[in-house]
Amino acid sequence: LVPDHSSGSMHVISWFVALAMASQLQGHSLPRMSRNVVRQPFSARLRAAVPTRRVDCKATMAPGDLVLVTGSTGGVGQLVVANLVSKGYRVRAVTRDAEKGKALFGSSDPNLEVVVADQRHAETLEPYMEGVDGVVSCSGTTAFPSARWEGDNGPEMTDKVGLHNLIDAAVKHKDSIKRFLLVSSTGVVRRKQFPFLIMDAFGVLSYKKMSEEYLEGSGLPFTILRPGRLTDGPYTSYDLNTLLKATSGSRKNVELAKEDSLNGEMSRITLAEAVAQAIQLPCTEGNTFSMMSREGNGPGAETESWEKLYKTCV
Known about the structure:
Blueprint: H1 9-22, E1 37-38, E2 66-70, H2 77-86, E3 90-95, H3 98-105, E4 112-116, E5 134-137, H4 155-171, E6 179-183, H5 196-199, H6 204-216, E7 222-227, E8 229-231, H7 240-243, E9 253-257, E10 265-267, H8 268-278, E11 287-294, H9 303-311
Parallel strand pairs: 2-3, 2-5, 3-4, 5-6, 6-7, 7-11, 8-10
Antiparallel strand pairs: 1-4, 9-11
């Protein structure tokens, strides 16, 4: 979402061009939603789970728990789903497009079910919150008007209304929810500063910040991750077996900050691992982390390494 402004003036020029073009576009009406359920198991080849150390904490999630993932067919969400299933979690993937979910996730693993709901319509979420141990929100849209805004899918409906509905649905089941993890964005605090004020021209960063604050005040055990501009993908035309083999090249290291102070890029692949690790670590509960990918080796899939990294910012 947030570009690396250190890359030069051409990025700035592109932003202003996009902003000028954006002002010519119109919104669209909100579509009616189907509440049909599609239960599609994952590929059996994902059963070779990535080793994960279980942390001894009552409120900590662990393999076997049921995780509801929104934005599951998006660039980050699909990688999060793949990662969680490979680690032994049961995943309930929420999508608005049953056919897309079926095509992407395949049909052979009983630990994954795909359900059709639209978090912009609160009543469609409630049936799927039952039995959920944790929630991961990977939903998002583009900062500037694009085809993804069609059907009233702009920043306000996606990053505010939809997320507030999801949080409200989780609050109704707060006795069973062990963690609610929100994937937000860097720049939400600095949205009135250049270059983030350009990215916030249509309110995407403002609405994300509103949802962060709504989650913080909900009483739910939460974790918020603020990645930089996303790289590595999206791999929306790849099957999930291929996704699990994807790597982030030489930029496997991770820099964290407690404040919204980092600039740069974040690998979607590394972000998915960061999500899967954060939901099981007690030290991430009630905390917000900004994160960027950096050159060098990082924590990989080692839980102890992620724990040490997260603890540097709590």
